[in-house]
């Protein structure tokens, strides 16, 4: 009998009631993804952001999800347990209507990659540093093929093409590539 394929589903469960807004998750995420690794800390570069309003005792961690080239035509406003949440607060997308989940210098989209690493980590860094278990990590197997996930480079290029157009991006890549080749020849 043919064996059914299994895929590994990785999940971070968020219990917002336990979050007290320490923002350690943002700090460690930005450090883990800095170059060199752990070289800098800048929560603006984190792939998780904690929305907080201490006066209303409201802390909501949100993970960076897919990049989208266009913003929504309508907006959502939630009221939960009597607390009204801002528009777009629960949305995970890196989108043109707001600054969140964009690399601050380049504006390129950021997306949570579950802390991909070689060798793999036991659990993502943000989960590791969350001492109150507002974030917990789970893995499970499901039937089905592994989906091919777009590389970070693909997502960045797509955003550049949406912003500047394909021709301009291609021209720039060709110009930089020939200048690098010239520099290489000069060094020989
Ligand atoms: S580390 Fe945990 S408690 Fe601290 S802000 Fe992040 S989710 Fe909240
Ligand atoms: S799982 Fe890793 S990449 Fe995703 S938000 Fe947490 S620390 Fe950042």
Distance between the termini: 60 Å
Strand order of the largest sheet: 1-6
How much of the sequence is in beta strands? Answer: 15-25%
Order of helices and strands: EHEEEEHEHH
Mean pLDDT: 90
Using only CA atoms, what is the Rg? Answer: 20 Å
Secondary structure tally: strands = 6
What oligomeric state do these chains adopt? single chain
| Major sheet details | 2 strands, antiparallel
Number of helices: 4
Find the structural class using helix and strand composition: alpha+beta
List the domain count as a whole number.
2
The set of bound ligands, ions and cofactors reads: iron/sulfur cluster
What's the overall geometry? globular
Approximately how much helix is present in the residues?
25-40%
Uncertain runs are none
Description:
With 188 residues, the chain is an alpha+beta fold. The protein folds into 2 domains: 6-148, no CATH class; 150-188, no CATH class. It is 26% helix and 18% strand. It is built from 4 helices and 6 strands; from the N terminus they run βαββββαβαα. The strands form 3 sheets. The protein has a two-stranded antiparallel sheet with strand order 1-6. Strand 2 and strand 3 form a beta hairpin. Helix 3 (152-164) packs across helix 4 (166-187). The longest helix is centred in the C-terminal third of the chain and has 22 residues, at 166-187. The protein starts with 5 loop residues before the first strand and ends with a helix. The relative contact order is 0.19. The mean pLDDT is 90. The structure holds iron/sulfur cluster (SF4) (2 copies). Residues 19-25, 50, 59, 61, 129-130, 132, 134-135 line the site of one iron/sulfur cluster.
